Amino acid sequence: MRKASDYRSMSTEDLQHELIRSKEELFRLRYRMASQQLEDKKAVWRVRKEIARLATVLSERKRVGAATESAGS
Description:
Elements: H1 4-8, H2 12-34, H3 42-72
Helix pairs in contact: 2-3
């Protein structure tokens, strides 16, 4: 599991790809859990936290980008 500081060093495009990959993984984990094939129940929790970290870093970048655009005008 990566830290938010690791995500901050990645490019925005890489973050978006990582977010999509994590959401797909969460879908697969939930499917396996529903079909009683998932042994590691904490895996869902870990992926959800990873998605939250990614979304936080992306929203920070969006907010900083919007602030610099309005300051430049």
